[in-house]
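QA checklist item 7 of 12: single-chain prediction sanity check.
[x] sequence parsed
[x] length recorded as 191
[x] structure emitted
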Amino acid sequence: MLTSSTHPRWFDVAAADLHRLLSDHLHCERKAAENALALVRRYPIQDEAALILGRLAHEETSHIIQVAELLAARGLAPRADTANHYARGLMALARPREPDHKVDLLLVAALIEARSHERLTLLERGFAARGEERLAAFYRALANAEDRHAEIYRELAEKAGGVDAVADRLCELAMHEAEILAALPFVSRVH
């Protein structure tokens, strides 16, 4: 789904301030749950999609709890949320008219989840290499969930817009996603 890969040095920068990284991760999970529920609110007539997105939001909420527990176990309180220029840049690409808007919102969510999968996998591997198995196992489990979520959003977009049209649009958005990501500095954030 992605057309670029995160540079390997991102891990060292991201892991340098674990408090900031975990706080950002907590807020990313919250925003993911909110996004799934916002799609249910905005497009309530599709019962199957509402059920799928409701379950996805429930899982994202459980991730908030897991990240909060990890912060607490380390004696850390979540920091305040900060603007996510990555997600904002992607959301700005959504076409304004329906049904294109719905398709784009689903594809943007798929790309965010796919990038989260990639980054959480990098965190898992990096912490494993450092011998920090608890953090590695934590990120391994969450990375697997993000991969599933990306596929769920892509499948919902295909149902809404057709497989071929969605494939073309996903390629276009993925190229923009890579450009947005490349323009951002490496910091202790998931995105």
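[x] summary fact logged: The chain has seven helices and no strands.
[ ] second reviewer sign-off
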